[in-house]
Amino acid sequence: MCTGSCAKCIGITLITLIILCTLANILLFFPGGSVVQENQYITDEVWFFGGILGSGVLMIFPALVFLGLKNNDCCGCCGNESCGKRFAMFTSIIFAGIGVVGAGYSFIVSAAAINRGPKCFVNSTSYDYPFHNGNYLSNHSLWDQCKEPKNVIPWNLTLFSMLLIMSGVQAVLCAFQIINGLLGTLCGDCTCCGCCGNNGAV
Fold it and tell me: Which terms are listed as keywords in the entry (predicted)?
C-alpha cells in the first residue's frame, strides 16, 4: 500500500470540501438569499462558523500536511532508511486528529441548527425560533409560521444539510488517514522502500 499516495488523495479531497464548506457558511449569512438589515435576524448557529472554522480553517492544516506526505524525503532522518517518511506519517496522525475535531465541531453545529430551525419573522413584533425539536422537518405545514425572510427554511435546511454531510465526509477521511498514518509509521511507504532500497535513486 502506498500510504503517501493515499494521503495525497485525501488531502486533495479535503481541499475541495474546505472550499465548499466555507462557501456554504458564507451563504448562510444571507437567509433566503437576501441581505438582512440587522445581524440579529441571522440564525445563531451561523455565527458559530462551523463551516468556516471547523470544516475550513482547522481542516486546512491536515489537508496541507497530507498533500505534502508524498514528496517528503523518505531517507532524510539521521541516515536511517525510511525513517523520515515514517516520522512524517506519524505526524500526519496528529493533524488528522485535529481534522476530526474540526469536522466534528461543524457536524454538531449543523445538526443543532437543523434540529432548531431558522430564526424568522413570526409575528408583527419580532424574529424568533418557531420550531421545536425538528418538528418542521416532517410537517411542512408549519413552514407557514415563518413570514420572512422568504424561503429561509429551505435555504438554511439545504446549506446546513450540506455542511452536515461534508463535515461527516471530512471526519471519515481524517479517521481513515489516522489508520493510513499508523500503517505508514509501522510499515513505511511503498515508494519509500523503493528509493531507499536503491540508495536514494529515483
Answer: Membrane, Transmembrane, Transmembrane helix
Number of domains in the chain: 1
Give helix then strand counts, H and E, for the chain. 5, 2
Classify residue 202: in a domain, yes or no.
no
Decide if 4 contacts 91 (C-beta within 8 A): no
* 154 found inside a domain: yes
Q: What span, in angstroms and rounded, lies between the C-alpha atoms of 47 and 179?
A: 33
The closest of 120, 157, 166, 113 to 138, measured between CA atoms, is: 157
Three cell numbers, residue 151: 424561503
Mean of the per-residue pLDDT values of the chain: 85
The answer on pLDDT for 71 being more than 50 is: yes
Structural domain range at position 41: 3-197
Question: Which residues does residue 128 pair with via DSSP β-bridges, in sequence order?
Answer: 120
How large is the average pLDDT for residues 144-170? 94
Which cell is 98 given? 485535529
Name the phi and psi angles at 101, rounded to 5: -65, -45
Is residue 188 very low, low, confident or very high in pLDDT (cuts 50, 70, 90)?
low
| 168 inside domain | yes
Cβ-based neighbours of 63, under 8 Å, separated by 6 or more: 11, 14, 15, 18, 99
Work out the average pLDDT over 166-191.
87
Q: Has residue 134 been placed in a domain?
A: yes
pLDDT score for 72: 57
Using only the alpha carbons of the chain, give its radius of gyration. Answer: 22
- Confidence (pTM): 0.84
